Recover the amino acids of this structure.
């Protein structure tokens, strides 16, 4: 089997995008909570949704 650069690093472009997406969504979610625009319950529900959304790509 021929190894590519992506295989050696273990991080495909798709995985990179998923990590970036998770970071930004988490940042926005926490910012909304910090500004009092959403409740703690809403923030926690969204955290679960963000985690589930981006954990599909492995």
């Amino acid at each position: 089997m021929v190894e590519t650069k992506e295989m050696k690093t273990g991080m495909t472009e798709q995985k990179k995008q998923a990590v970036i997406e998770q970071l930004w969504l988490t940042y926005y979610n926490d910012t909304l909570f910090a500004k009092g625009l959403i409740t703690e319950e809403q923030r926690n529900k969204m955290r679960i949704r963000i985690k589930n959304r981006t954990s599909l790509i492995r």
